Amino acid sequence: MADPSQVDPVKMPRASPLRVFKTVFWSFFGVRRRADNQAELAGITPLQLIVAGIIGAAIFVGTLVLLVSFIAG
After folding, report:
1. Number of structural domains, the chain?
2. Alpha-carbon separation of residue 29 from 1, 3, 22, 26, 36 (angstroms)
3. What gap in Å lies between CA 72 and CA 6, rounded to an integer?
4. pLDDT single digits (tens) 14-57
5. Which residue of 7, 26, 52, 63 has the fewest C-beta atoms within 10 A of its own C-beta?
6. How many C-beta neighbours within 10 Å does residue 52 have?
């Protein structure tokens, strides 16, 4: 795989939605090496990250609300 700093961003293909959500998931989890993180970010636009982050946060909060309501019962 090419070094992300060496690749022209204009010619880089856009990342798939699954790859973007995988990157956001690992960011929420917080355990990544810097080299792996840089490789994952290649081809992902800031708009894709923002949208995936908002959706991921909504899923996380919704899961917590459902879990608390289930336990409180």
Report:
1. 1
2. 24, 24, 11, 5, 14
3. 53
4. 788 888 888 888 888 877 777 777 777 788 899 999 999 999 99
5. 63
6. 21
Q: pTM of the prediction? A: 0.69
pLDDT-based confidence at residue 68 (cuts at 50, 70, 90): very high
Any domain includes 6: no
CB atoms within 10 A of CB 56: 16
The span from the CA of 65 to the CA of 73, in Å, is 12
Tell whether 9 is covered by a domain.
no
8 Å CB contact between 7 and 42: yes
**pLDDT at residue 65 above 90?**
yes
Answer whether residue 3 is part of any domain. Answer: no
Dihedral sign for Cα atoms in the order 59, 60, 61, 66: positive
Residue where the block lists tokens 């960011």? 27
